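Quick illustration, no need to memorize.
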Amino acid sequence: MSSHRQDQVRRVAAPDIAARKGKTPIVCLTAYTAPVAEILDDHCDLLLVGDSVGMVVHGLPNTVGVTLEMMILHGQAVMRGSKKAMVVVDMPFGSYEASAEVAYANAARMMKETGAQAVKVEAGELIAGTIEYMVKRGIPVMGHVGLRPQSVLVDGGFKAKGKGGEERQRILEDARASAEAGAFAVVVEGVAEGLAREITEVIAVPTIGIGASAGCDGQVLVADDMLGLFEWTPKFVRRYADLKGEISRAAAAYAEDVRARRFPGPAEIYFAKAG
């Protein structure tokens, strides 16, 4: 084994995240590009290359059209930009549902080509076996229960889940099954606060909430939502910046300077040397 160290900084790994259960909350944001990953890396324990990239970056109406190649491309970018945070890449719709063998092959390809530390799957009743199959073969897996964006066509939209009845119990069972299958953490999205707390109490691995509860073991938001890049955001988003406004103001100032021939000025142009 070579003694050459490629990374001077040790990245956060799945066991580190699992060990945070019930301790200091885990900080997670989405990242899709190298420059943003570099900025977020100092502040996050975990960077999620979410299939939300399809909507946020590529303008798709939902995540169903996201491909394995898109996830690999953005996973590579985030790995280049970050150094210490754990990087988890979403497995896109259609890449893991057919069988555990198909899921493993696609997950292994994503991890080989990106260098990411784990994958994430939306955990329905049929997925626990797939999680177990992948984990036993060396692939750390994060589960995702509650509102599952890849099921948007079945659900008829992005709707909060688990407010009562059979659906509540099913989500609880999905979370328990994911944890027992070997998932190192479970994202809990868009569920009633009480259910999120109950899931956090009954499963042995950390829960990462999004539109869930402050009682979860960690939180994740789509970075572009949190940064205020969109006019509309879900109820559960808190805006920490207004980048849409800042970008618009900067573009307007630039346009005004170009039209008035104030840009480029002497500081931004090259001059021939005398003689």
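The longest strand covers residues 141-146.
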